[in-house]
Amino acid sequence: MEHTSLLERILRGAALTLVVIFFMFPIVWIFMMSFQTNETILRIPPQLIFEPTLANYTALITGKLITAAGTLDIAFMRNLWNSVFLSTTSVAVSLLLGVPAAYAFARHKFRGSEDIAFTLLSFKFAPALLVLLPLTLYFQKLGLANTYIGLIWVYQLICLPLILWIVRGYFEDIPADIEYAYRIGGHSWFATFRKIALPLAGPGIAAAGLLAFIFAWNNFVFALVLASADKQPVTVGALAFITSSGIQYGQISAAIVLSITPTLALALYAQRYLVEGLSLGAVKG
Amino acid sequence: MSQSALTISGVDKFYGPIDRGVHAVKNLTMEIAKGEIVALLGSSGCGKTSTLRMIAGFEEVSRGTISVAGRKVHTLAPVKRNVAMAFEGYSLYPPLTVRENMAFALKAARLPKSEVDAKVASIAKLLEIEDILERYPSSISGGQQQRASLGRALIREADLHLLDEPMGQLEPQLRAVLRGRIKHFIKERGLTAILVTHDQTEANALADRIAVMEGGVLQQFDTPDRIKERPANLFTGTFVGEPPMNVFEAYVGTTAGRINLRLPDGLSLDYDKDAFSAPVRDQLLSRERVVIGIRPYAVRRSKEGVPARVSANQWLGDQTHIAADFAGGSLVLVEHDRTRLDLGAPINVSIDPKNLHVFDQASGEAISHGMELA
């Protein structure tokens, strides 16, 4: 480390603290709200001291939302499961299709390869709402509306281009000669893809998969239009908290905490491997 | 030696569409016998690496055929060609140690462990990398990686060993030692090797025959001695040899029974008609203009020679390189003693007709070398 003065260290610490507070505040506030009732949340001025309650979580987990107007059934746990299922499956399908495709785009220049790759990327340019109307009509005709398969299919619009383009870059960074050396050593190209290219691009694939998972998890419009209650993910399911007797801030907060927990956990878990993989993957001599 | 290890016939390489893309290798035909070491020598972009990669199967052959040990291989996948290769960029597998890298192909071929260990040990000793066998590629130097990569190729039993710039990263002393050892290793085992290099010392030291390439065209394919003594054309003549051959354009004329090679600046090299053999004399006299080439060590200083003026004088520790302004160009001569000549000093040089290389002025093809026709 270079030499730094005491003042510099104090200032740096203060600046870092400010940044952390700034970015963490909403999450911390939501976390606190999730342990409060609507009454304590809506107090003016807001207070940091309150009596924590688990009522919000209980309501979500049991599926019974007790409001001033009576008891409502909410399918939050079902929604959470839908989110997990839809995101995981979509990313898995995308990885299955996207990683070999990315390898092909990275290693083999064929007629129109750039055009195809760009077309796939251009899926991300189209405003989702514009695509949705015709898509809904087709899906209804095909019987895909309100099915998991249909949703996973549409989620490929989110995941596939992302994975394809990120992973392609990682494959391109691997010197082709390493693969050639393996192939000339008596292995087929498929073995080379599996044993050399995939492990070396591993961190990239993990990063792309993680990112795609988060995007899929956060998706709202596709699921809103194409799925009915029993297939909806949490993002859409959260609408149920806007009830006739008011917005249930406590439950919404608890729902947010529960729904960001899986992605957060995944990110924290994968981060270790990402950093490790990136520093180990020093390919150049 | 009679059996052919590699036959390349009529091979073209285009990057991009055939006949319209970049024409990297042009109508290449060559045959390499079993047990031979051949160097592909040329400057960057001359097509030598493209040729090597076509043999290995990493580049498609646009036209023509390649056979290894009598099998047509140019459409086969690399794995089916039974060739080994050392890459210029080393291309070691990062997650494996040097030992594992070297043993890799042998393990894939299911050799017993004791045999693999013995082979790795002997190659490692040969290349002086015994002490880094357990290290990972990212933690060793470029020169060590290069030797590991070379070891990975040499350890295999293959019909053909392809070595792309195998010693570019090594220190000069080590390079000289390893050249000898590697040559011995290849010869002892009767391997056939093709090495790509731009270093003519390496080509001369290692190869039985050298293929000089330029602009995608094979210029000459011959033994190192013959390439030096009888260059097929102006390119080979000037490319091979250190310092390079001196080249001048000359008009051929005769006065009073003597042959004059008239150079720019009113200079002329005059020779007795009988100084040339009859066929060479006939060839010379049938032309108006030629290009003459003289190796630097064949230029002599003499009292009655043609005047020149010293423009540089370098003592290299074992020989003197003198550059002189001569006939509108520069003439380099090599002397084995330390020569004290100041800049601008006038000297006279003479050239023995036995050491004269004559080339066609238009095509650059060799006409004669000394007393013999090309």
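Residues 90 and 146 of chain B are 5 Å apart (CA to CA).
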